[in-house]
Design a protein that fits this description.
This protein has about 100 residues and is mostly helical. It is built from three helices and no strands. Helix 1 packs antiparallel against helix 2 and helix 1 runs antiparallel to helix 3. It comes from Nocardia uniformis.
Length: about 100
């Protein structure tokens, strides 16, 4: 099986880094949103902000990264799929190598 192990490792690490950055930004946004909500309590703008923040969380995800259908969840699934593909490719190589050696 022909594959570029270094490229798969780099892609997996890159996706993991993107997931980490998204989670960091989601945590920062949550912190800022919490402070803003406290400041805006009783203000008409709070309802609109809350709707926008909830829509953002639904699309991009929260800092906990638990929603598999969010952007963060999709990035995590991609990272895991790349890692699994590399593991499967290496396993297939070992199987082929063993067949040629008569093991």
């Amino acid at each position: 099986m022909k594959y570029n192990e270094a490229a798969l490792i780099e892609l997996q690490e890159s996706l993991s880094g993107v997931e980490g950055k998204l989670k960091t930004q989601a945590a920062a946004l949550l912190d800022a949103a919490t402070k803003l909500e406290q400041s805006w309590e009783g203000n008409e703008g709070l309802a609109g902000f809350t709707i926008a923040k909830n829509a953002f969380d639904a699309e991009f995800g929260r800092a906990d990264g638990e929603d598999p259908n969010s952007t963060i969840g999709h990035v995590r699934k991609l990272e895991q799929a790349v890692g699994n593909a590399l593991i499967n490719a290496k396993s297939a190589d070992k199987g082929v190598e063993g067949a040629f050696r008569g093991a």
